[in-house]
Amino acid sequence: MGQARYSVHYALAALLLTGCAPKQTAAPQSSIASAQLANAGPDRPEPIDLVLSEFAITPSHVRLRTDHAYRLHLENRGSSGHSLSAPEFFRAAAPREGPGAADATSSGGIEVAPGASKDIYLHPRRAGTFPMECSHFLHPSFGMSGDIVVE
What we know:
Elements: H1 2-16, E1 32-34, E2 46-53, E3 56-58, E4 61-64, E5 70-76, E6 82-85, H2 87-91, E7 93-95, H3 101-107, E8 109-112, E9 117-124, E10 128-133, E11 145-150
Parallel strand pairs: 1-4, 2-5, 4-11
Antiparallel strand pairs: 2-3, 5-9, 6-8, 7-9, 10-11
């Protein structure tokens, strides 16, 4: 009985993933993105690029500093919709002018359509390690997760 249940789960997962097969992307493979702080400061946004694809958030570990301005550039290179969900992080950050920041801080995440990109401007206000993931069904369990470390 237990073996059959796992087979059904695997079959269900395979059906759900139809059309979500991994694509080859030219995304950077580094596991930690550290901000280039030489040209950044409290008021000049430091760009941080995050690529969403089947099934990864690249980089999966992002390192930021408190009270510095950042522009999170989210690019969906996948064939289906993806999101960046990080409610604890967005609650601990102050939005800056620009589309998306107020939406992300109020809802805890931002949706990005296939082939689209969005920018979020914000200031992290509290240090900590914050989980991030795609909020779509089963995407985190297939690798669309990581963390944001604010120092």
